[in-house]
Amino acid sequence: MGVKDNTLSRRDFLKFSGGLLASSFMLDLDSDLGFLVPSAEAAAKPEKGEKKLYGECGICSMGCAYIAYVQNGRIVRLEGNPKDQIAEGKLCVKGYSSLNILYDPDRLKYPMKRTNPQKGIGVDPKWVKITWDEAIGMVAKKFKEVIAKDGPQAIVIFARGKPHLKHFAKSIGTPNLIIHNSACDVTHDIAWESMVTGEGKGRPFTGDYENSRYILSFGWDGPGKSKNKWGRAINNALEKGAKLVVFDPRLSITASKAHEWIPIKPGTDLAVLLAMIRTIINENLFDQEFISNYTTGFNELKVRVQQYTPEWAEKISDVPAGKIVRIAREFATTKPAVVASHKRDAGGPLYSNSFRTAQCFIIMNTLVGSIDRPGGRILDRKPKLPKEDEFVKYPEYPKGVKERIDGMEKYPLTKKGNFSTVAQGILSKKPYPVKAALIWKYNLPSFPNRLRLEEALKTLDFIAVSDIYPTELTELADVVLPEGTFFEGKGLKERKFHAMYPQMALVEGIKPLYDTKGFKDVLYSILEKMGLKEYVPDKEALKAFSKAKDEALGTTKEEIRSNGGIWTGDKTFKPKTEFGTPSKKIELSPSLLKEKGFDPLPYWIEPKVMPNKEYPYRLIIYRTPWQRMMKTQNIPVLMEIYPENTVTIHSKEAEKLNIKEGDYIWVESTTGKIKVKAHLSEGIRPDCVAIDHGFGHRGKGMTVAFGKGSNEGDLVPDMTIGEMLKNPDPAANSMWNEVVLKIYKA
Amino acid sequence: MQNNINYRSRDSSEITYLRAFAYRTLAHCFIYPSKSWISELPGWLNTLSSILEDFGPSTEAVVKTVEEIRKEKYSLQTLQIEYTRLFINGAPSVLAPPYASAYSEERWFYGPPAIRALHTYQKAGLAFSPKSREMPDYLLVELEFMIHLCQNEMKVGKSYGEASDIREEQHCFLTEQLMPWVSVWRGYVETSDRAGFYAKLAALINEWLKTDAVYLENTGERSIA
């Protein structure tokens, strides 16, 4: 009798209540309550004032270090950490408002499973809350079944290429880790790897723009994306008298600050760059000492570019030959000068010639001696720390099939995945059927032609999704694995996005809310449950790794805590004299490209599609300073500032089409059409329209983001592997955004 | 509301225990449904009914609701789906989050009501358990606090002044913290619950809070008089 067996009747109660009234055990709070515990400290000292917690912003990859002020267990405000070379004491509008994510009622809170077998966007999955054990068990069981019946390749993992994700894919034996690079930075990665950093080393993120005297941009719009450091760097450089010249079909925020904005024809930046390179070489304006000491392949390059005269480039790009020559001369004779670049650039989209364009950015910087020199592009300085794989050893990975569902194994230099081909790969069931997917923090609007991917995913037997928010992709999931926000994580993070010298930011994190887990832990739990314990890191080895890392840091935990990181490294800039290529020099005609059967030198490639009578406009895709895709779309204050995306049309074109400011219009490609609010501007070429990315969410679970604006990815075609292979590109550039359009009143 | 709780015929400590037990039972009814939970539910409701009956005519409406819930047969999965949909994450979205802040001016969690609740707990010498990942204004935390205050009252027994102070504390938390948002929350649950169980449970919690507030008010007045 009592609470536990819940049969306490009135008579029972009256019978024993007299003797036990003062006792609390009958109320048995611990079984399912027990949230509150006695605390002499709490009574004596109710929490007053603010407590500091250090962290790293997770909104964009810049990762500004912040200080969070905690009051009553709640983070109440954020400020940039002044010691961090990226934040320099400030965050951007997205960073400051990111606090909303932590306390967003829409967050995924507990693991859940679907009980409705019907799947589709807008179909109620009829979630039920489950335990982590059950969730992990379901994923492990399904993966084991799929492996036994269809092989490990029948499991596809959509996720960023973190080391633990690569390890997970290899451990279960699937070649299908699909990373988003085809839609992002692949062209720059392969260009830098082949010419400067070495195979597999990626591109640097650092640019010493602040100290540049002449900054050239081909579509690069760091300040326009409110990239914290870059925005300030450009402003500071301008204040110090630097000249900024921007080639972009759209008057971007960077272009609006520039001394010259040149509205180049989209997809023709390469032509201008080739002509500029020719000018600088032929007029002997290049940095002779840098070229002779630190480069190879100069003569080959010189021969190659002779065909690309400024007059030739003018015909292609609409940029007058005289202007090309003048800017090339200014660039080469003002020291230091830099071509600022990051990932897609070239007006926003990727084009069939984007890899060669990225290659030319590096050549331009090399010609003026601005690779790893003050005022130029800088190779990131990272702390020298032991690596996990030096301590944690795994048995050999299972040897599975090499063919990937997105066909990327056919490209020798990039195997990171192709968002453009994966849907058709799954639907064609070639080279094999796919049965299950594990998806980490990607959403359908991240993909070109999301409707096709949705159709493909619906053919799978099983989908597990890990995310912070109930995205539209979550609506297709069988199991939801909720992840915590960056405010709830812990660690010591190296400065990556702007690393002039090595620094590390402490990430403390508040006590996590609800029942969320980091995805790394989830992956190891799945492996363990699948019976693949040998691929789960040994705890002792991890301890040894952690100890070695602590020793290498050369400081104490207390010091790190009191400083919020390690900011005391050597800040003297020592320019590199050797690079990561086989020759240890900057290879203007890279041996890696030759070895893999590609033309090592840049050459002119026409864009894949050209505007025509039916589709007279090119699509330009950009990002606003106020949003970063899904991550910020559910933040009310940002949506108040900028509640929906627009299509920017040149005023004269709009007049011809009787489109007025604020009209909703149809924007249509051969792939699809979307309805978007028109914004009229003189700040765009008449043959282009520009749409900002990140809107158009169909997942009703994100109540602020839902239904706001449109997703321009619905206009972007996907492709078959066969179509992709027609492009002999070292970066397997999938021309993600190359689209022509028509527009008309809705 | 008329206060007809039969406190005159009952020792005040007994009544406090009954009240604590009512809070405990309501809290238990609100936890996420499991196999054992659903099998124990009729027993819990039976106990609740017995306790409430003991309070006299003022609880008739509440008892009636308990009886209505008892008569219905609910499938575990239906209740789990509804619980998840209403209180955790649903499609289209979470419909009736059981947090006071969700019904404050800003719908964001951990707002001023959560801070107020936390301060109250701290003043009472309580802190959050290290294992808890919940926020201070979560329904179950606030119900647990009421149980804690009832326990405190039981501990001081008949020490007149102390018991009266604790009752005042209860009344204050109930009327200033719990009741304002629970009455709004109940509306959201009632309009959104497809199974009927949670609409009734929310109504039951809301009714009980009102009944208990009147009881505390009247016993407070009596003690002053």
Structural commentary:
The complex is a heterodimer of chains A (746) and B (225). Chain A is α/β, with parallel strands linked by helices. A seven-stranded mixed beta sheet of chain A has the order 6-5-18-17-16-7-8. Chain A has a six-stranded mixed barrel with strand order 23-27-24-26-25-28. In chain A, strand 7, helix 6 and strand 8 form a beta-alpha-beta unit. In chain A, helix 5 (132-150) crosses helix 18 (519-529) and helix 10 (269-282) packs antiparallel against helix 13. Chain A is globular, with a radius of gyration of 28 Å. Residues 1-25 of chain A have low confidence and may be disordered. The longest helix of chain B has 33 residues, at 160-192. Mean pLDDT of chain B is 85; it is low at 1-5 and 221-225. Chain B is built from eight helices and one strand; from the N terminus they run H-H-H-H-H-E-H-H-H. With 225 residues, chain B is mainly α. Classes of the chains: A alpha/beta (746), B mainly alpha (225). Chains A and B meet through helix 1, strand 1, helix 2 and strand 6 of A and helix 1, helix 2, helix 4, helix 5 and strand 1 of B. Strand 1 (36-38) of chain A pairs antiparallel with strand 1 of chain B, so a sheet runs across the interface.
Task: Please supply descriptive tags for the structure shown above.
heterodimer, A: 746 residues, alpha/beta, seven-stranded mixed sheet, six-stranded mixed β-barrel, 28 strands, 30% helix, disordered N terminus, B: 225 residues, mainly alpha, disordered C terminus
Overall morphology of chain A:
globular
Quaternary organization: heterodimer
Number of strands of chain A: 28
Describe the biggest sheet of chain B?
none
Shape type of chain B:
globular
Percent strand of chain B equals under 5%
Number of helices, counting only DSSP H or I runs of 4 residues or more of chain B: 8
Biggest interface reads: A-B, 67 and 75 residues
